[in-house]
Each structure stands twice: as C-alpha cells, then as structure tokens.
Amino acid sequence: MMYWEKELETLPVKGLRRLQVTRLNVTLEQAKRSPYYGELFGGNGAFPETIRDLEALEKLPFTEKQHLRNNFPYGFLTLPPKEIIRLHSSSGTTGNPTVIFHNRHDIESWSNLMARSLFCAGVRDTDVFQNIVGYGLFTGGLGFQYGIEKLGALSIPAGAGNSIRQIKLMRDYGTTAIHAIPSYMARLYDVFLEEKLDPRKDTRLRLLCIGAEPHTEEQRQRIQEMFGVKAFNSFGLSEMNGPGVAFECEYQTGLHIWEDAFLVEIVNPDTLQPVPEGEYGELVMTTLDREANPLIRYRTRDITRFIPGECPCGRTHRRIDRITGRTDDMFILRGCNIFPMQVEGVLMKIPEVGDDYRITLETINDQDALVIDVEIRREWFRGDMVYLDKLQKRLTHLIRDEVLVTPVIRLVEPGSLPKAEGKAVRVFDKRKR
Amino acid sequence: MAYQVSVFLENKIGHLERVTTVLKDADINILTMNLNHTPGGWGIVNLLVNKPETAFRLLSGAGVSAALRRIVVLPMEDKPGSLDGLLRKIAGAGINFTTAYGRSGNGNAWFVVDIEDLPEAQQLLLDAGLEILSDEVVYSLD
Q: Most buried among A3, A368, B44, B135, using CB within 10 Å?
C-alpha cells in the first residue's frame, strides 16, 4: 500500500484524537483573534477554556452560514490583510456571498490535502491530469490545480465546457486522469459518441475524479461504464477550503475524511446531538489547520454518515458515505420529507431513463403534486405506446415506494430539459401558497 | 414489407411542426399518418412516407426520438362496406392490432395496420385471402 503521508494517514486512532485535541486548542486561540469569535468568546475572557478531550466539544457553539453572511466580509478574519494571499467566495446570488480567506500556510495545507486525496485515489506523478471545472472563485479549479502540481503530475488546466476542445486536449496530450462534475461526464460522453469516438478505446484514461455535485452510486456506475475506468468520489465545500476534504481510496468504500485537518461530527439536525455511529445526520466540521479563517463547528447542511469499520487500505481516517442530500434541499410534500437524491436514485436504475430530469412541485386540483419530467433515451424508443405507458407506470410505482408520495411522471423528449450548469438544481417549487 | 416512421412527441405547440419541417426540407412526402395522445402529456405520431429510411435517419439526426416499425398495408375498394369486409377477414384470421389508419383516393383505399408478431400474422392474412402491398407499391402510392 502506498501513501502520500504514511505516518499521518495511518496514525492509530488514539493518536489521531490526541492530535485533534492539540490542534483544536490552537485553532480556538487563533479564532479569538477574529472579530466574530473574539466577541463570542471574549465576553468573559475565560471562554472557551482549554479543551482536554473531544467530549468537551459540545460546549462549543455552532457556526452557521448565516453567521458568515452577517459578518461579511472580514468578520471571521484573524490576520491583517497583509498576511492574506487569496480568497474564494460564493456567487452570493441569494444575499451576501460566503467568503473564505487564506494565508500562505492555509494554501500550502490545502494543496497538501488535495495532493493526498489524489494520491489516495491512485493519481501518480506520471499522470496527465485534465481539470475540467471552472477556475476562478470556484474552489474546484485552483484547489485541484495546486494539488496536482503538489503531487507532481502534469496538469492541464482546461476549465469547464467546450467538450470538443476537451476531447482534443485529451487526445493531443494523452490525458490519463480527469476531474469533472458527474453530470458533465455524462454530457462529455455524448459528445464522444457524436464525434464517433469511444472514450474506452480512443483515450488513455486511467481514472476519473467526480465531485462538487451530489450524485448516486448508480450514476457513478453509469459513468464508470461509459469511460471504462474507475470514478472516485471527491467531497469538499468552499467553507472547508473546497475539494480535498474527503476522498475515496482505491477500494471505493466511502470517502476518507482527513481528520488531522478537520474535526468531524455528525449530528441530528433538529436536536444537534451526535447521532449513533453509522446513522445519517448533518455533517459538522471544525478546521484544525487553518490560520486565516478558522471555523468552529460549522454546520455544512450536508447529510451523510460515518461508515462503520475499518478500510482495507489501512488509513485510519474515518470514511463518510456519499452525500445523500442537504438539510436545506429537502422538501416537504404532503407531510413527507423528500430528498431529490431519492428520486435520482430510482431514476438512475432504469436504463431507459436519460441523465437529465427535473422535479417540480405543483398544485394540481388544489393538491400538492410531485411532478417529475423524465427523458427517455432515444435508443430505447421503439415507437411502441404500450411499452412507454408501462414504463411510465413502473416509474410511478418505484418512486412512490421510495418517497411515499405518488408522483406525476411526465415523459419528455430527449434534450428538452435544460442542461445543468455547475451544480444541478433540479427542484422547482411552483406550489400555490 | 413496408415501414412506418413512429415519432415520440410531447403534446406541446410546435413539436409536430419540428418533425414535418425535417420532412419538408428533405422533400419527403407523407402518404398518410395518425396521431395518438395519452393522458401523460405525450403521444406518438405514425407517418407513412415515401422514403422511411431517409426520414428516420434525418429525424434521428435532428435529435428526435424516432423508430422504424414494420406495418402491413391492405388495399381495398373505395366504397361503402369494404372496410367492414376487410376487418371480417382480419378477425377471421384471429389477428389483433393496436394501431391502424387509412388512406383513400382515385377509387382505391388502403388500410395501414401495426400488428404484433408480424411475420406470422402476415401468413395468416395471406391465408385469409387478403392482399398485402409490397413496399415498392406502398412507397410509390400517389
């Protein structure tokens, strides 16, 4: 077994927890220098006292996205501007953007985590790595870029879009590894076919990294089949640097979350109490190696669980499961909590169904209805009405069994649904209130 | 054996026109057609055209869900009672069908039928004394 940093990655759990406690105290000291935490902790000077073990963690307050927004832009900054070398921020279309600042140490630490993540998935310095996501404020571009360089592979900073050019780059330079969002990989595959090319034969691809967008195991399997190589799940969020928070190893049994850099909790989003090991809840994270912009018990809104047991790869950092949804993209329809991922999970198991779909919540005959537009793949169309009618009924039943609400399935022509740009937003709420 | 072109369509303004524009641009003639609709908001349009393979290729290329389906075209006289006579023979041969449509002109009429298990059914139709038009004849109907 090969590791990027053997000692840290295989540190026995006890040692790992001790390291976390040490780093947590350093982080708390550092956090007090920011206006926000300074005021929060500074009232009586003594709080928070030194943490002796992780049991004491629950005494610390949570930090939420709203806090970041309310204290935009410098409220969480612990260092003078002179020390800062980069910021990343969200678009802020729904209010103040969320911005995270980095000093030189933070960028170095993040690059290293990213290199470790890539190495863990099997990327080596001999690879040619094409990074097919947007550069700029989006963390997936520069985050991977610095990681690839740190690891020593040849980076192709291709950026997002222009599939014809992506394919040309892949063929010109013999690309062996790719990073992209999963919905884009499906689109890229279509362009390969249109160009009469087979990515399994006409490229030198060895592996894919997919992330930045929640997706199901079925979707991953489909992408692996299209390209004939393994696709490794990448997880990150801009508040925790970006990518390089958690990554799959060659066993693909969940994502190792780097516990030397992050303190990880999974809590019940209503009670905010930890859930029993192995159960789903909201991921809460504390930075342990970030100087400019530390965050304490940050509520990510992402729903996942710890995967019990040890990974055969020997890494001691726990694994989280793929993100099944967000506490805030869940919608409630006729009293049922529904996550778009549940719907997607069903759709992706049906070979006739295309990659794009759309969920609309509508009011039909004064009743709330779950309407799902589904594309049927062209190659499955046989001109047979009975067959399509049966398929429609089958989808209706399968989704009802999953979400407990009978959906209205609408079959639509392929290509008629708007293609997802960036993170796929697929739920439209048009209910009358 | 003749083919019809079947096309999947959402029931929305302008969608059928997308199909007919492709045919117009390729100078393809529609001999007869029918249009179905389901409560699900979608339907299938069946087109009997003079160049089905070309139509299928062009429609698929334009991103339309299209399929070639084998059909039989049964000729009859254009006068009262001939469809009744034809249907009696089809029923007598023990054959069921899901989609059918017609065409008439110049004193002749044609019945287009989409039958499951077509190869077997075809023999039964011939045994029942029905005439089945060859594809050359079908595609050159005017």
A: B44
Contact A413 B9 (CB under 8 A): yes
Instruction: List the one residue out of A341, A344, A398, A331 whose CA is nearest residue A370.
Output: A331
A70: number of Cβ within 10 Å: 12
Quick: pLDDT tens for A241-275: 999 999 999 999 999 999 999 999 999 988 899 99
Q: In terms of CA atoms, which chain B residue is nearest residue A194? A: B61
DSSP code for A365: T
Among A364, A384, A385, the strongest candidate for a mutation testing the B interface, having the largest count of B CBs within 10 A, is A385
**Chain B positions in Cβ-Cβ contact with residue A389 (cut-off 8 Å):** 38, 40
Dihedrals phi, psi of A332, to nearest 5 degrees:
-115, 125
Written as one string, the DSSP assignment of A266-326 is EE-TTT-PBPPTT--EEEEEEESS-SSS--SSEEEEEEE-EEPS--TT---S-EEPPP-EE
Q: Hey, which bits of A114-216 come out as E strands?
A: 128-131, 154-156, 177-180, 207-211
Owner of token pair 């439209």: A428
**pTM, whole model, 2 decimals?**
0.68
Model confidence pLDDT, tens digit, residues B13-71: 889 999 999 999 999 999 999 998 888 888 999 999 999 999 999 999 998 999 999 99
Run of H or E including A165: helix A163-173
Structure-derived torsion over alpha carbons of residues A374, A378, A381, A387, reported in degrees to the nearest 10: -20
3-state secondary structure A62-107: CECHHHHHHCCCCCCCCCCHHHEEEEEECCCCCCCCCEEEEEHHHH
Helix/strand/coil percent split, chain A, to 5: 35, 25, 40
The tokens for A10 are 């295989």
Contact (Cβ atoms closer than 8 angstroms) between residue A327 and residue A304: no
Picking from A190, A381, A406, A409 by the largest number of B CB atoms within 10 A of its own CB, the best residue to mutate is A381
Closest listed residue to residue A418, CA positions, set A426, A430, A429: A426
Mutation for A interface: B3, B8, B58, B68, most A CBs within 10 A: B8
Residues from chain A contacting residue B10 (CB–CB below 8 Å) = 411-413, 416
pLDDT in tens, B72-100: 999 999 999 999 999 999 999 999 888 99
| Spatial CA neighbour of B104 closest among B48, B72, B142 | B142
> How far, in Å, CA of A331 to CA of A301, rounded?
14
The ipTM value here is 0.79
Residues 6+ apart with CB under 8 A from A117: A147, A234, A243, A244, A246, A247, A258
**Are the C-beta atoms of A188 and A166 separated by less than 8 Å?**
yes
Contacts of A383 in chain B (CB under 8 A): 4, 6-8, 44, 46, 66-69
